[in-house]
Design brief:
single chain; about 180 residues; mainly alpha; Heme Oxygenase, Chain A; metal-binding; monooxygenase; monooxygenase activity; 3-demethoxyubiquinol 3-hydroxylase; ubiquinone
């Protein structure tokens, strides 16, 4: 008598992959909050862009809080790099704002472009296996796209050396994603 064939692997991400997803998503939202804090520290609350930046920061804070709860509920270890992202995020936000408001918007456009791609890959990987996680990612992805579009509408592409700045920030974002998934 032959034994039954093993079940084929389920589509979507496994538990370890989901833990890495949550770890990097929480770290990314934390970093975004810090970037906007750096931008607002330089631009102040009287700059015409400050209201838009504060609105985006509030959305990022809501995203971060949601992923904080999911990490606790699912017993996922957060990234050990959070102290570094605390400083690096603020520094990136402040540095781009010091260059000018267009550079601050270029920073947002670059990061949100990368995060849109990142969240899209995660949604493909999860499929319908984890509605709580995929639902949060879908909702937050739509807001990240809104942030990117707002940044472009408010002069991101007019930043000095925009293609170089955009490309370097996206590259840094990819590195942060890879490091936060692992560590």
């Amino acid at each position: 008598m032959t034994s039954p064939a093993p079940h084929p692997p389920r589509p979507g991400a496994g538990r370890a992959d989901r833990a890495a997803m949550l770890r990097v998503d929480q770290a990314g939202e934390f970093g975004a909050v810090r970037i906007y804090a750096g931008q607002l520290a330089v631009l102040g609350d009287r700059h015409p862009m400050s209201r838009q930046i504060a609105h985006m920061a509030a959305q990022e804070e809501r995203h971060r809080a949601h992923f904080d709860r999911m990490i606790v509920e699912r017993g996922v270890r957060p990234t050990i790099l959070q102290p570094f992202w605390h400083v690096a995020g603020f520094a990136l936000g402040a540095a781009t704002a010091l260059i000018g408001p267009e550079a601050a918007m270029a920073c947002t456009a670059a990061i949100e472009t990368e995060i849109d791609d990142h969240y899209g890959r995660q949604l493909e990987e999860i499929g319908e296996d984890d509605p709580a996680l995929s639902g949060a990612i879908e909702e937050f992805q739509a807001e990240e796209v809104e942030h990117r579009d707002t940044a472009i509408a408010h002069g991101a592409e007019a930043a000095p050396a925009y293609p170089l700045l955009f490309g370097m920030i996206r590259l840094g974002c990819r590195a942060a994603i890879a490091l936060s998934q692992r560590f």
